[in-house]
UniProtKB/TrEMBL annotation:
Keywords: FAD, Flavoprotein. Coiled coil: none annotated. Residues 365-434 form the Flavocytochrome c sulphide dehydrogenase flavin-binding domain. Residues 175-290 form the Sulfide dehydrogenase [flavocytochrome c] flavoprotein chain central domain. This is Cytochrome C. InterPro entries: FAD/NAD-bd_sf, FAD/NAD-binding_dom, FAD/NAD-linked_Rdtase_dimer_sf, FCSD_central, FlavoCytC_S_DH_flav-bd, FlavoCytC_S_DH_flav-bd_sf, SQRD, TAT_signal. It comes from the Bacteria. The keyword Cell division does not apply. PANTHER family: FAD-DEPENDENT PYRIDINE NUCLEOTIDE-DISULPHIDE OXIDOREDUCTASE, PTHR43755. It holds the Pfam family FCSD-flav_bind. Residues 44-156 form the FAD/NAD(P)-binding domain.
Amino acid sequence: MSAQPINPSRRRFLGSVGRAAAGTAAVGLLGAPAILRADTPKARVVVVGGGYGGAIAAKYLTMADPDLRVTLIERNPVYVSCPLSNEVLSGERDIDSLTFDYRGLTRRGIAVMGDEIIEIDPEQRFVRGKGGARYNYDKLILSPGVAFDFGAIDGMSAELADSSIPHAWKAGPQTLLLRKQLEAMPDGGVCAIVAPPNPFRCPPGPYERAAQIALYFSHHKPKSKVMIYDAKDAFSKQGLFQAGWKEHYGDMVEWVSAAAGGAIEAIDPDSMTLTGVVEDFQADVINLIPHQRAAQIAVDNGLVDDSGWCPVDQQTFASTLQPDIHVIGDAAIAGAMPKSGYSANSQGKVCAMAVAAAINGESPPAPSYVNTCYSILAPDHGISVAGVYELKDGEIVSVPGAGGLSAPDADARTRAIEVQFALDWYRNITADMFT
């Protein structure tokens, strides 16, 4: 269908939604019956993945065009948020405060199906679930997240991650396992965090985690230490993190760069030993965050390139490798945007508007992309990095002079306000996703 001009009223709606960030209230139930908005839908859109990208894409599709039949497929009955999950390790929050169901989306007429997609047929345009169910689509949006490359570090495996060396980079049972290990660790022990190479989900996450574990130690195990062994020589918000660690925890947190021998090559879980490029390190608790790539469903269905990630048209997030499939969130190659929850949220909205426009024979609206990432180092100490992005020559680039880091010399009141901003951001974005 050839592109047609957007009528004025529709242009205003698409533009306003494309610029929206996050805001409203959360909750939902997987598999609840949906009220379809048209007996004969204009088009069928299937969204795979019910997290920060997929849930928002499904919601905004229904807002863009109530005559679409939108199906969200998610294998888990509830969603557990990775943002703020580090606070479970310090004891500042519990896992229930991170857990959401899908009833809010079903109330919007979205069919939420509990299934795991194992096959995509781009020629006949259907996906197949693990139990054999077939879901036909006219457009498919994938928000599949990341897969973990356990083989990059000798001796590591998915089985070890579930049993004794948790990565907790998907919030849930491993988060609770890591918390229990910290509780059982002797005072004076060492918790080792192994940080992966770029790119990976939530670039500031390992360093916020170090602060939250140190917060727990400062109250309960003050002789203990957090060691970060890194595959990189620099990391997101580095100066702000290092100053905050020092201010609140003294020498309790120590970072070892790749150049200083922090790149880990192997693990012996029996002796709790990490093998670095120069020397070995021992620890009482090991939090090994694996190397990452696009989720396996993207790999299996020809959506990744040699980088291990999914190339897309960065205006619409349409795959450049498969027709009528869009990829958003951590799995996508999205120019200057980091792999974060807020990036996925922004991409989900842009993608939803582009898909709705294409179905209606219209050109996609001009995209607008944003990202803000807060990190909480102590109950009254928050820091952030923000970015505003635009499309330039087909690539997402940072808008010069927009966004930036928290001021390095901010006073205590400003740091405390940033914590409140972080908590408000979380409430707003999860409300936007699940209501």
